[in-house]
Amino acid sequence: MIDPQNRVRERLEACFIYLSYATPDIREDIGIQGLSQVWIDTPAWYLWVKGRPGAFMIETVESGCLEEGNIVADSGLMAVRYFPSPGEEVFRDFSPGERALRKSSLFDITGTPRFEGVKRVRAGLYHIANLECLFGNRSQWMSLILDAPLLLTQPPGEFGATPAADTTEATERAIPAYALSLALYDTLVKMFTYFLRRTPAAHGDAVIEDGRERISCSFFSRTDCSGIERFLSSYTGVHMDSSLRKNVKPEWKKIALMEHRSHLTSLCGCKSCG
């Protein structure tokens, strides 16, 4: 029997592989410039998005099944990491140790860790946000939830996993984590808008933790939204109401109506897609 982690992985991969064969102009409009599976012991991917010269990594850190009344959903909680390009302004906001590692030979020309460097970054380094993917009730709905500090000042590891014993990090860190991770989140919402051929039924944001963190939530639905809205509002603290169509961006509508055209060459770098 397939467990929640693999069900979430299958649904994400279906979207990612589909987008990898979209024509270049469609990819440009959506903002996805590249994606590749990370070959580790848990579902993970690298993504390159328009407007950010560095690379993102999303890695599943927890999975399970959520149940509330008649709402049932597979959940995949992912750590969002960003490997900044040494030439971009935000690079200086990372810790001295993160900057030194990023400029070392443990990173390759793509801006992502070589195989031997992946273990180092998974020890809490470059972790700027959390992304939760929910897939519910016989694939009738799904949600993407971003949770990130507005300004991340904790030493590497405190926001996510505990650093490895040999990690020595100064605390000079002032990363605009929410704004940085929003580029990835917006691209993922657009990717699923194109893949599902529909805009999100609702989208909302909320500031929590005395104004220190921000949550964004979008959900797509093929069925009545009221029960899902109540569940997500309670679960995230974000007011979700599909009647408030003002939160559905015009660019999402454009993407949902795009003609679906395939390109012969995939942008995916994984072994399956060549």
Describe what you observe in this structure:
The protein is an alpha+beta fold. The chain has helices at residues 4-20, 24-30, 96-102, 115-121, 177-196, 226-236, 250-256; strands at 32-37, 44-49, 55-68, 71-83, 127-136, 141-149, 202-208, 213-221. The chain has one domain. The chain is built from 7 helices and 8 strands. The protein has an 8-stranded antiparallel β-sheet. Helix 1 (4-20) crosses helix 5 (177-196) and helix 5 packs parallel to helix 7 (250-256). The longest helix has 20 residues, at 177-196. It is globular. Residues 160-170 have low confidence and may be disordered.
The string of secondary-structure elements, in order, is: HHEEEEHHEEHEEHH
Biggest sheet architecture: 8 strands, antiparallel
Instruction: Label the overall shape.
Output: globular
Put simply, the count of helices is 7
Helix content: 25-40%
Coarse structural class: alpha+beta
Order of strands in the sheet with the most strands? 1-2-3-4-5-6-8-7
Total E-strand runs: 8
Number of domains: 1
Q: Uncertain runs with pLDDT below 50, 5 residues or more?
A: 160-170
Distance between the termini: 29 Å
Assembly state of the chains shown? single chain
Overall pLDDT metric: 88
Radius of gyration: 18 Å
Which range does the strand content fall in? 25-35%
